[in-house]
Automatic annotation (TrEMBL):
It is found in: Cell membrane. GO terms for cellular component: plasma membrane. The lineage of its organism: Bacteria, Bacillati, Actinomycetota, Actinomycetes, Mycobacteriales. Keywords: Cell membrane, Membrane, Transmembrane, Transmembrane helix, Transport. One of its GO terms (molecular function) is transmembrane transporter activity. It comes from Mycolicibacterium parafortuitum (Mycobacterium parafortuitum). Residues 17-458 form the Major facilitator superfamily (MFS) profile domain. The chain crosses the membrane at residues 53-71, 83-102, 108-131, 143-165, 171-190, 202-221, 227-248, 269-293, 299-318, 330-350, 356-377, 398-420, 432-451. Its main location: membrane. This is Major facilitator superfamily permease [Streptomyces bingchenggensis BCW-1]. PROSITE patterns: MFS, SUGAR_TRANSPORT_1. It is a multi-pass membrane protein. Gene3D superfamilies: MFS general substrate transporter like domains, Multidrug resistance protein D.
Length: 464
């Protein structure tokens, strides 16, 4: 009887731990999406031009994407529990500060620091799952649930952003504080203490080089949307130089930050590219759709959020349907199907009209929800399978880096095309249509990345 009770207690504890870690993934997803839906309201409240408004999202992306590799490796070296909890506390503190921010500059600064905190939080959380659960069906199911709820956070964040903005835009800062505090209360007693200590070195020179390279690359892309050609070229040249220095460092370092074997052609590399394409298309598409509904059609933030609610279908399907499909067809066939639905979503919206009724938008939005249902979780499994435990944090960091890097590229490129179309004399609606070509192209690239793996013998996973 004692053994039975012990096993039951262990299962309950494991379920609560997964709930806490999923809460962090959901928090990260909902935090990003809420700000996208709240941008027009923040613009009006703080009198921000479009170029500066974009930096509320882009600043977060730069902090997140720039520090993700360092965050993942730090978790591997100094302990995933320690890094996770410290990052969560920082996230809570700066989010609370953002709720009382007096101007746009403060909001942007808060979002940058929040992104850095998330860069340490997310790879540590995923690595806790992949090192706590034995590889196989049990881990795959846990990862699919984790990734599914993270994707659901993106979708439900649209609705939450609309609801909270109706009460005031500052609530998009305060609400994550409440959710993060609940996660912290659960995580402190549940996350197992790490046996790993700083017996390994962190390769600080490599960390500085790659962080600077990623930050400057994203800044180059962001600057191209609204800055000068000289500034963009300058940032780009420095970024390339830092990447070259980082590659040279990784070949000579005794314990490199990113062992080059993790970047060889294979399933992991395809997963990184696929995640980048999915994020890039989604961010660019969402940005234009929100502007279309709120600034052209005059819909409120709440009405916009309700209209986009259908995208949150992945909150139901990802943890339930996706494991069954992966078991039946294999990871890459499910991923490829998700990428096809993403490209279809962007294609269906490209003919948007001034007076579209909601039913005309529905197929596109529904296809986007199905895309996240099918692609996001399996991409996470593909990126972390067959990786040694000592590199799980780093692998998670690589995955999230490409996701955020893709988001930055998609958002900046879409914005740049929309601004350029407007400058060339296109009307507001025509500029939106032109900008939507960017997500479509990215969606097609995502399909091209996934299909070669899908046509091979499928990697069948027994996650049920």
């Amino acid at each position: 009887m004692d053994a039975v009770e012990t096993r039951a207690t262990s299962r309950i504890r494991a379920a609560l731990l997964l709930a806490a870690l999923c809460g962090a993934a959901f928090l990260e997803g909902i935090d990003i999406a809420m700000f996208n839906i709240a941008l027009p309201t923040i613009r009006q409240a703080l009198d921000l031009p479009t170029a500066e408004l974009q930096w509320i999202v882009s600043g977060y992306v730069i902090g997140y994407g720039g520090f993700m590799l360092l965050g993942g490796r730090t978790a591997d070296v100094y302990g995933r529990r320690r890094v996770f909890l410290i990052a969560l506390v920082v996230f809570i503190g700066v989010s609370a500060l953002g709720g009382i921010a007096p101007n746009g500059a403060t909001v942007i600064a808060v979002r940058v620091v929040t992104g850095i905190a998330a860069a340490f939080l997310m790879p540590a959380g995923l690595a806790i799952i992949t090192t706590s659960v034995p590889e196989g069906p049990q881990r795959d199911r846990a990862v699919l649930i984790y990734a599914g709820l993270g994707a659901a956070g993106f979708s439900l964040g649209l609705v939450a952003g609309g609801l909270l903005t109706a009460f005031g835009w500052r609530w998009v800062f305060f609400a994550p504080v409440v959710l993060a505090s609940i996660v912290l209360v659960l995580a402190v007693p549940l996350i197992p203490r790490d046996e790993v200590t700083a017996r390994r070195s962190l390769d600080l020179p490599g960390a500085v080089l790659v962080t600077g390279a990623v930050v400057l690359t994203v800044t180059t892309i962001e600057n191209a949307a609204h800055g000068t050609l000289f500034g963009s070229l300058t940032f780009g040249v420095v970024a390339v130089t830092l990447f070259a220095g980082f590659a040279a460092r990784q070949r000579t370092a005794a314990e490199p930050l990113v062992p080059l074997r993790l970047l060889r052609p294979g399933p992991q590399t395809n997963a990184y590219l696929g995640a980048g394409c999915l994020a890039a298309g989604f961010m660019g598409f969402q940005f234009i759709v929100v502007l279309y509904l709120q600034e052209l059609r005059g819909w409120s933030a709440l009405t916009t959020a309700v209209a986009l609610l259908v995208v949150a279908i992945d909150a139901i399907l990802a943890p339930t349907l996706t494991p069954v499909l992966v078991r039946r067809f294999g990871l890459w066939r499910v991923i490829a199907a998700g990428m096809v639905f993403a490209a279809l979503s962007f294609l269906l919206f490209i003919g948007v009209e001034q007076d579209w009724v909601y039913l005309s938008m529905l197929p596109s939005l529904l296809a986007l929800g199905i895309a996240f249902t099918l692609a996001y979780g399996p991409l996470t499994i593909a990126a972390t399978d067959d990786v040694e435990e000592s590199a799980q944090g780093l692998t998670s960091g690589l995955l999230y880096t490409t996701f955020q890097f893709g988001a930055a590229i998609g958002l900046a490129t879409t914005t740049a095309v929309q601004v350029a179309a407007t400058a060339a004399g296109a009307g507001q609606l025509d500029s939106y249509r032109t900008a939507l070509l960017v997500p479509l192209v990215l969606g097609v690239i995502g399909v091209a990345v996934a299909l070669p793996r899908a046509w091979r013998t499928p990697q069948v996973c027994a996650a049920a």
